[in-house]
Amino acid sequence: MIDRLRELVAELPECHEEEAWVGLRWRVGSATVAHVFGGEDGLFRIIFKGEPSEVMAFQHLGSPYFKASWGQDVIGMILDDDTDWDELGELLTDSYCLLAPAYLVEKVARPNG
Fold first, then answer.
1. I need a surface site. Which of 1, 2, 25, 42 has the fewest CB within 10 A?
2. Is residue 110's pLDDT more than 80?
3. pTM of the entire structure?
């Protein structure tokens, strides 16, 4: 799973991996693009940034999505055997583009232009 996440963020300029207080996170500058961690229930979760309107939409979709208990722009997703890795890649790219400086965002190929 971690290797798949690494592949998804590998194309994001100046996005680096580091250990977090729990799990791993990927950052651009000092901003966290994504954070993956395991829960006491044995499930792995990833959180990332999204537009506030998207957070609400994903929250209403239900599992595997959830709204984090902090921030208005944090989307969470349970990672399991049914994870749509292509969709997650798009969501992580969007998170990156919300946080990265414009000169880096210009270098990112985005499916929706």
1. 42
2. no
3. 0.91
